[in-house]
Amino acid sequence: MAEIIQKDGTWTFDGDTLRLTPGRDKNVGLLRRTLGELVLPLRALAGISFEQGKKSGRLRLRLRDGADPLLHTAGGRLTEPHDPYQLIVDSDRYGVAEYFTEEVRTALLLDQIPADPVTEYLLPGPSVPLSVSAGDGTVSFDGERVRLEWNWKTEDAKAAAGTRTLALADLTGVEWQPAVGLENGHIRFLVRHSPTKAPAKYDPHSVELWGFKKDPLMALVAAAVQARLPHPSAPADERPREPEAAPSQAAPAEDDHDALLRRLRELGELHRSGVLTDEEFTLAKQAILRRM
Predict the structure, then answer these.
(1) What is the pTM of this model?
(2) Which ranges constitute the DSSP H helices of the chain?
(3) pLDDT digits (tens, 9 = 90+) for 273-286
C-alpha cells in the first residue's frame, strides 16, 4: 500500500483503488470538503503526475474522459482549491510523492489500463439528497426530482413562475458555469421539449450565480443529476428513445394534442411574465403549431 498524508489531504492506493480524502486545512475548497472522500477504481485513471516546486509540489490525477460525472459537468472549470484530483505536497515529502506516483503508474501498466474515453460513468457522482442555496435561488435534488426555489434577489418575472419541480425523466442535460470576472455563472436544467435562449436571470429552469462562496457547490448538484442521466458517449441504442412521431397523414393522438395545448398556455404565461422575448415566443409557438 502507498499513502501520502498532507495538510491538503490524504491519498491512499492499495493496488486496485485510490482513496482521496480532503484535509482540514483552511485552503481546502468548500466543494472538496462537501464532496468528502472519493473512491476511484484503477480503471478510471488515465495517468498521474507529480510536479515539484521550490516550496511545494503537486500531485495530479488524470481520469479517463467520461469516467466522472463531476469532471464532465465542470468541463475543466474547477479552480485549484475545489479540484479533488490535485494534492499539494510539502517539499519534505517529495520522496513519498514520487514513490506514490510510481506505484500508481506501475499498476496502470501491469493491469494494462487503457487511457481512452469510456462510455459509462465509473464513479457514482455526489450522493443525494443535495440542497444548495446560492445566487438567486435554491436547488434541491433527491435522485428523482429537481426542485428550484427563489429568494428575494430573484428577478420578479422569474419569481412569478413560482417554485419549479422537474422530474429526472424530463431532463436531457444540465449545465454548470461558474462566474468569471464580470460574467455571472449559472446552473441550468435542460428540459425535454422546452428549449430556451433566455438568460439564467430570467429562465425559470436556471439559478444565476454571482461568484460567491457557495457557487462551486452547484457543480455537485449538476454532477449528481448528470450521473443519473444517460452517458453522453453511450451507444444510441442504449439511450431512452423519443416517442416516434405519428405519420403526417394521421391526426395527432388526443393525449399529444392536449399536451401541446398545455405547452402553448405555458409559453403564453412565460411570454407575459417577460421570461421569453417576443422572438423566442414566436419561434416556440410556431414549432408547436406545426406539430399540431
Answers:
(1) 0.79
(2) 30-35, 69-74, 94-110, 156-159, 217-226, 254-272, 278-291
(3) 665 677 667 766 76
